[in-house]
Design a protein that fits this description.
Layout lengths: L8 E6 L7 H12 L4 E6 L5 H10 L4 E4 L4 H5 L4 E2 L1 H6 L4 E4 L5 E4 L2 H12 L8 E5 L3 H12 L4 E5 L3 H8 L6 E3 L4 H4 L2 E4 L22 E4 L8 H8 L3 E3 L2 H16 L5 H12 L3
Parallel strand pairs: 1-2, 1-3, 4-6, 7-8, 7-10, 8-9, 10-11, 11-12
Antiparallel strand pairs: 3-5, 5-6
The structure holds NADP nicotinamide-adenine-dinucleotide phosphate.
Length: 276
Amino acid sequence: MSALVDHRLVGVIGSPIAHSLSPILHRAAFASLGLTWQSQAFDIDESNIDAALVAMSTLAIAGLSVTMPLKQLVAQRVDVLSDVARDLDAVNCLTRLADGRLEGHNTDGAGFVDALQVAAPDSIRGRLVVVLGAGGAARAVIRAVAQAGAGEVVVINRTASSAATAALLAPNVGRVGVAADISTADLVVQATSAGMGSADQACDPSLLRAGQVVAELIYHPATTGFMAAASAAGCQVVGGLGMLVHQGVHAIERWTGMRPDPVAMELAGRRELSTR
Ligand code: NAP
């Protein structure tokens, strides 16, 4: 008699969701682990999130990645919230516990730190980190780089009040900055949505200096205008796909208890993006 094949299901929820890379990354992760788990994208918005969460528990869906516009809503609805998800008031990773309760966690910040560890080791601990932006992704990065030992975390945002709130996620080392801080940073993180489908830039690229590490969170397009300007200025440039991959690595680990191969996941992501 052949052994039962384990086709456990995970997925991603958000809206719009058709172009999400998450199922592709999840499938590459499962293949790297020799698992036959499945991953599916579900178009869920604010109007049907409650039904989706009940369905996750009832249908025993093992895990869900959570993307726009649901991260905050999910944080307010789960049974169990991790410390990081509570601090950020945002969930990007849902796990169904054995008793059916749903646990919300956030792997964005850990994904960012892991991606930098691969692409630009030594760019966080003891360094001056400038974060452009104060939205959900920026807040995850601010908290994570502070926890990873950044010497100073300077937040610059179009809306100053949000920058002040976000800087509190880096106790003792966080503050609100001004444009001139960009020129003295060791690491500049572009965490705004400027440049995603527009020519807007989060800061004047002439403020960048050769030798700085510049990390862009946007992963599509693969090279934003900001990344091109940073390269031209002599900076070491890191694109956003690594963060997406590594936040997914953390999610898969929580769901399966096993660490998938980030290289296989990144290759799958890169292959898919090259077709778009
Ligand atoms: P969000 O919560 O909506 O925050 C958007 C941020 O961008 C805010 O700080 C906003 O400033 C700023 N902003 C928007 N348009 C701007 C403009 N034209 N000029 C200057 N600042 C502008 O979005 P999010 O979830 O943080 O996502 C931000 C980016 O990160 C998106 O491009 C997203 O795709 C990317 N991301 C990547 C990953 C990854 O794994 N690589 C993960 C999450 C997010 P105000 O406060 O002034 O509105």
